[in-house]
Design brief:
- By secondary structure, the protein is an alpha/beta fold.
- It has a single domain (3-177), classed as Rossmann fold, CATH 3.40.50.2020.
- 35% of the residues lie in helices and 31% in strands.
- It is built from six helices and nine strands; from the N terminus they run αββααβαββββαβαβ.
- The chain has helices spanning 3-12, 30-33, 36-52, 64-76, 131-141, 161-168; strands spanning 14-17, 25-28, 57-61, 80-85, 93-99, 104-110, 119-127, 147-155, 175-178.
- It has a seven-stranded mixed sheet with strand order 5-6-4-3-7-8-9, sandwiched between helices.
- Helix 3 packs across helix 4.
- The longest helix is centred in the N-terminal third of the chain and has 17 residues, at 36-52.
- It is globular and about 40 Å long.
- Adenosine monophosphate (AMP) is lined by residues 24-27, 61, 64, 124-133, 161.
Amino acid sequence: MNDKLKKQLEKKIRVIPNFPKKGILFQDITSITDDQKLFKKVITKLKEYSIKNDITKIAGIEARGFIFGSAAAIQSNLPFIPIRKKGKLPGKIYKQKYKLEYGIDEIEVHKNAANKKDKILIIDDLIATGGTAVAAANLMRKFNPQEIQFHFIINLYNLNGMKKLQTRFKSSSFLNCLG
Ligand code: AMP
């Protein structure tokens, strides 16, 4: 995203205190999707990026990554890979566990969704602590792709998720994060 669009998004995002539980400042992306001009600008940027960087597949993390990821995939004329929560995909799957604040979660992807020739752009609405993104990167690595890139519509900078992602994969040339 360019700085102008980033500022527009920061201004537009609706922040709801104490949802879904006390202490969370929930960033509600429906205030972006409600505005079709702004939503289209975001998707157009993702499309331009995908084309410029020879992305071959776009993946979205359930659930809000599906909103931006699938729209970007259609606009870019690329296949869409759903990265789903545990137990939702009927075919043969790769899985990746990750830690939550309390307990463990798991994300899954179909084994035939990508291959080693792919350059995959993973999209999610938001990066906070980076736990979900690290798990998604580890899941996509199972395809041994040429490259994995990330795009988040919102970056909660103070939670250092992007730093965690970059540190974890510092030696991997394939990983690139966009703000
Ligand atoms: P994390 O793994 O901590 O980076 O959290 C990222 C995931 O949790 C994303 O899929 C977000 O949709 C969701 N998430 C985390 N924190 C928030 C927040 N404050 N507002 C909205 N969604 C959030």
